[in-house]
User: What shape does this take?
Amino acid sequence: MDQAEKKRKLMVGGALIATLIAAVLVEEEETVIDTVDTIQPVKPSGDRIRNQENNVEQLDVSKLGQRKFNALAGELFASTTWAPKQPQVNPEEQAIIAAQAAKASAPPPAPTAPPLQFKYAGKAIVDNETWVFLSQAGENLIAKLGGKINDKYRLDSINDDAITMTYLPLNTKQILTINTKMVGNF
Assistant: This one.
């Protein structure tokens, strides 16, 4: 056994002895209380009862006044919430809010095709087939009539001023105008 364990056992033993002594002393006090005769209640005399009744009659409750509460204290038993209180809304503002809510609850607008992200780079005609060179986000693309671009667009027609494409997910036709001043030379 090391020193710390011996010290701990001595402390626990001392605490046990102190507890036993305290329990014996408490039991002795209880036996002393039990041996004392029962105390009889003292009945007040008749004069004392009459004086108490007279004092009650002399008390004027109207002089006490009303209890005053601080308005900043708020309601004593009100429920509390962390949400801020909503300000009062007048009828005109309420009508505007109702109109906005009606707009919000209206069905969403029909989906539309995104704007064309392609830039025209040029075209080439080989064996009676027209090929169009386009660029999108730094990527160069080549498509021919009826061909698909990125599986989302189909090239429908090509002329000198515009290219007509169909956005396949919505089957919507879109037109890419050709600016001949910026066309590359091939």
Q: What stands out?
A: DSSP finds three helices and seven strands in the chain. The CA atoms of residues 51 and 57 lie 10 Å apart.
